[in-house]
Each structure stands twice: as C-alpha cells, then as structure tokens.
Input
Amino acid sequence: QVQLVESGGGLVQPGGSVRLSCAASQTIISIYNMGWYRQAPGKSRELVAFINSGNYTYYVDSVKGRFTISKDSAKNTVYLQMNSLKPEDTAVYYCNADLPPFKDYWGQGTQVTVSS
Output
C-alpha cells in the first residue's frame, strides 16, 4: 500500500513563501504522474500542478510564475514551492500519485492559510 504524506503547510503572510513536501512510502515518484491539488472551503478540488514521468509540468493559470513543482526521485519526494502567496491560495493542499489504469493515491492534505 502506497502512502503519501504532505508537510510544510501553515500560516503565511500575503507575499510570503512556503514549500510543501510529499513523501511517498514506495519508489513510485519516477514512474507515476505526481500532482498537487487544493480545495478551498465551499469549492471543488482543483488541480494546481503536476509533473509526469518525463518531467513535463503543468500549472493552472492562477499560479503560473508563482508556484514550481519538482521532484527528487532518490528521496521519493515531490515538492511544491509557493511564492508570492495570495489570500485566495488558502486551501487544503493534497498530493496525488496517478498511473492509469491502476489505482491512484492521495495524501491526507496539509492546510495552507494565507492571511495577515
């Protein structure tokens, strides 16, 4: 059973930065598509960024130029560097590992609150 554990969330001021980490219990980072999602209160879960096995990256328009997804396969860890944070970035951030047609995996989430 693959487990994903997010860390790095917390309270940050607008304009600040935080780096989220997603540690996988198995050596899957180099094979699976790894994504970061977020869900704000009253809103649906949104794909923020992903990086696939070929290191192709995608970002939702609202975070382009501010967020960077990266991975370290040797450490089985995926990162989301979040800069120039805005209050609208406040959400629970979830790590996802996906390799269709097989079952995907989710972390339990980490809260990021952007407020002064």
